[in-house]
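Hey, I'm writing a tutorial for new members on how sequence and structure tokens pair up, and I'd like a real worked example in the thread rather than a made-up one. If someone can provide the structure for the chain below, I'll link this post from the tutorial.
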Amino acid sequence: MVGFKDRTTLGQYMPMEPVKRGFKVWVIACYRAGYNLGFKIYEGKENAGISLGERTVLTISDRYNDEGRCLYFDNFFNSFPLLKMLLAKNTFACGTLRKNKKCFLRSKMMNDKSLKRGESDYCMAGDISVYNRTDRGAKPVLLASNFHDPREETTVLRTNVQAMVDETF
């Protein structure tokens, strides 16, 4: 949200955000350098068969299709139909996933309460994989990807509260 208090038809009011009034701007950026590669200003509701997050990702990343690029985004944008559409355009994607999203293969995965800290579970539907992991907190994190293999695990070094280095899988 870019703060703006003057009169405009494109302005948004979001009372729960730190910047309450302004323009809602979607940005695609390089993950290495942080450079802005493109942006889109939210112009209001559009009548389409896809969600706002899916439509935003498809329009903002359109110039990078068929180049084999990787997109990373959060759970507002991520969904199974979006991952399938991007894979059909030779664009790879990965991101966190909300549990209540449609087309989610929840019945094939373990219950969240049965996962202990450090445990994980995964399922695959075609080229899309979902990885469920309980790591630091009590809540598991869901990741959905159209190019990762969830059976492969690697070791990551992290610093804990006591500034000691831990190994995490």
